[in-house]
């Protein structure tokens, strides 16, 4: 295991932030720490980096107990949400920083920095200052800077959080490809479930300072450990006392076995998908169908239909 | 030869053109009335009786001694403030201790106190009847002390806001890249503070060379020993030699100007070098 976190507790003053958190990160993996804000995911990342000291518990990096090591000795690359660029240094010198600290020969530094700048597509901007770069470019520079020292693990704290939606999507895909090239064990924090599912090969869901579930994106999406995870990972709706994904519901015009009667209240066409809003058993629910299905059923407000989960659909019974 | 990458020059958008013109006019008139015209008058007056007289006024033994003492003591005080002022700003921003807010307020006292009062207090504390047993009265050390007191706030107050704004994540980034506390300070914090430190130092220096009130009591104004330039100017005026007084003033003006300009040049050079 590249990172082993055991029973970590951390409070800020009287506010508990992490509660008995244990976590294993496999070498070479790309792991997302996913959860709502205030769930403790950034704090956990900072504990791994040594930027916060846990009250109790241990952190091992590559098998070595790092709990008491300062960040400077952990050989961990850290990327901040707001870039933390060295404003007074050029892009080149920013990336070279860790190598200069390690007193590597000038020629070697130059070669390595130029390689990294090519990797992050900033080779033409080497002499610029951070203030002359866009947010996306700054974050790529920060990534190159963190990779320059060949860290054992790379930690990214909401790396795309400060970027606009378009750049964010580009960088996501790009991070995934970069990881496939560089293979460094990477952990990133996000509150965006789509980002986690798209980029990570392991998702760790953190809420209320505890690890709620860990697994591959498919596992976490299809077999959520509890209603919270199910809600957090994707759209849900409630039918017959169970949580179901709205795309896992079958609509029939007539009564069916195991079906619940419902009344259509509204039909919303959103491009290729259609959102059918219904009243079932006295509360609101909705079903996602394709346009073709909607046309075939000819649904309109006031129609009575029957709903049931499709065979093999994941549903979670809600405790009443 | 064509260049592949052309530099992008960012121009501030032209906005509020009318308002800017009016504002500029007001600023120029105000500056002229308050600063430029009086300064020009001083320089004009100093040249009243030709360059020969100017030179003789400045190089009389007592005037020359006062000038060198003033500039030397001011430079020393500026250097001390550079170090101590930065250290105090650091403590005020980064450390949490009881009485921090009180200390933060006290820093401005040298600005608020009439300088003659400061001189009185210093004489009482560090004069012949010093309760601390330290007698600096009528000595150059006393002059330096008085100047230190009066100019202390400059570096503190220029460095403090920059330090407050400084992104602490830069320091964490440096640490995660393997930099120790000293390396982080030297390579990350200091370069970001230097412009503020230098401008604070320049302000302290220029303030020190013109100081009168705080030094007049503790120095005893012994010509050739502890008389500073401002006091010398005052005695010239009392002796009805206004042209001589204006000449010495002009020298002080030029020294202040050179200090400010060279600092600005230094900063520009530093920024380009990065």
Automatic annotation (TrEMBL), chain A:
It holds the Pfam family TOBE_3. Keywords: ATP-binding, Cell membrane, Membrane, Nucleotide-binding, Sulfate transport, Translocase, Transport. The keyword Nucleotide-binding applies. Its EC number is 7.6.2.9. The keyword Flavoprotein does not apply. One of its GO terms (cellular component) is ATP-binding cassette (ABC) transporter complex. GO terms for molecular function: ABC-type quaternary ammonium compound transporting activity; ABC-type sulfate transporter activity; ATP binding; ATP hydrolysis activity. InterPro entries: AAA+_ATPase (IPR003593), ABC_SmlMolc_Importer (IPR050093), ABC_transporter-like_ATP-bd (IPR003439), ABC_transporter-like_CS (IPR017871), Mo/tungstate-bd_C_term_dom (IPR008995), P-loop_NTPase (IPR027417), Sulph_transpt1 (IPR005666), TOBE-like (IPR024765). It comes from the Bacteria. Residues 3-233 form the ABC transporter domain. This is ABC-type quaternary amine transporter. It comes from Microbispora hainanensis. The lineage of its organism: Bacteria, Bacillati, Actinomycetota, Actinomycetes, Streptosporangiales.
């Amino acid at each position: 295991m590249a990172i082993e976190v055991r029973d970590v507790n951390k409070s800020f003053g009287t506010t508990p932030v992490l509660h008995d958190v244990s976590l294993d990160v496999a070498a070479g993996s790309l792991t997302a720490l996913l959860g709502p804000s205030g769930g403790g995911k950034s704090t956990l990342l900072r504990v791994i980096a040594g930027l916060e000291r846990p009250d109790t518990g241990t952190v091992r990096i590559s098998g070595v107990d790092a709990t008491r090591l300062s960040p400077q000795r952990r050989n961990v690359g850290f990327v901040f949400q707001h870039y933390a660029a060295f404003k007074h240094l050029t892009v080149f010198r920013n990336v070279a920083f860790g190598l200069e600290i390690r007193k590597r020969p000038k020629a070697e530094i130059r070669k390595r920095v130029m390689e990294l700048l090519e990797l992050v597509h900033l080779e033409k901007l080497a002499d610029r200052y951070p203030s002359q770069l866009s947010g996306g470019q700054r974050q790529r520079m920060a990534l190159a800077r963190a990779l320059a020292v060949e860290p054992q693990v790379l930690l990214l704290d909401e790396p795309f959080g400060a970027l606009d939606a378009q750049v964010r999507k580009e960088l996501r895909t790009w991070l995934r490809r970069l990881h496939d090239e560089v293979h460094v064990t990477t952990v990133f924090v996000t509150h965006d479930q789509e980002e986690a599912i798209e980029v990570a090969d392991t998702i760790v869901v953190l809420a209320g300072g505890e690890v709620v579930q860990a697994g591959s994106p498919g596992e976490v999406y299809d077999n959520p450990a509890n209603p919270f995870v199910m809600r957090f990972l994707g759209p849900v709706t409630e039918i017959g006392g169970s949580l179901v994904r709205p795309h896992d519901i079958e609509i029939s015009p007539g009564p069916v076995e195991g079906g619940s009667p419902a009344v259509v209240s509204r039909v919303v066409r959103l491009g290729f998908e259609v959102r059918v809003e219904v009243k079932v058993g006295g509360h609101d629910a909705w079903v996602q169908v394709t346009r073709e299905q909607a046309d075939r059923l000819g649904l309109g407000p006031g129609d009575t239909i029957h709903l049931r989960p499709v065979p093999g659909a994941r549903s979670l019974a809600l405790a009443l | 030869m064509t260049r592949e990458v052309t530099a992008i020059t960012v121009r501030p958008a032209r906005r509020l053109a009318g308002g800017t013109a009016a504002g500029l006019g007001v600023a120029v008139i105000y500056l002229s009335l308050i600063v430029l015209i009086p300064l020009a008058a001083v320089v004009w007056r100093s040249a009243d009786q030709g360059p020969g007289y100017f030179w003789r006024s400045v190089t009389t033994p007592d005037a020359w001694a006062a000038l060198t003492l003033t500039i030397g003591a001011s430079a020393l005080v500026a250097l001390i403030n550079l170090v101590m002022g930065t250290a105090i700003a650091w403590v005020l921003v980064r450390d949490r201790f009881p009485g921090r807010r009180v200390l933060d307020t006290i820093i401005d006292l040298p600005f608020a106190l009439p300088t003659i009062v400061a001189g009185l207090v210093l004489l009482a504390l560090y004069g012949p009847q010093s309760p601390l047993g330290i007698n600096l009265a009528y000595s150059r050390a006393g002059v330096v002390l008085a100047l230190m007191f009066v100019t202390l706030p400059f570096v503190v107050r220029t460095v403090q806001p920059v330090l407050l704004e400084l992104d602490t994540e830069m320091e964490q980034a440096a640490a995660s890249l393997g930099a120790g506390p000293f390396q982080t300070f030297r390579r990350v914090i200091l370069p970001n503070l230097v412009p503020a430190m230098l401008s604070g130092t320049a302000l302290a220096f220029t303030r020190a060379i013109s100081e009168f009130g705080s030094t007049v009591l503790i120095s005893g104004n012994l010509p050739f020993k502890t008389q500073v330039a401002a006091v010398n100017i005052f005695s010239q005026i009392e002796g009805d030699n206004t042209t001589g007084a204006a000449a010495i003033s002009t020298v002080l003006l030029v020294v202040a100007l050179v200090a400010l300009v060279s600092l600005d040049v230094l900063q520009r050079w530093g920024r380009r070098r990065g």
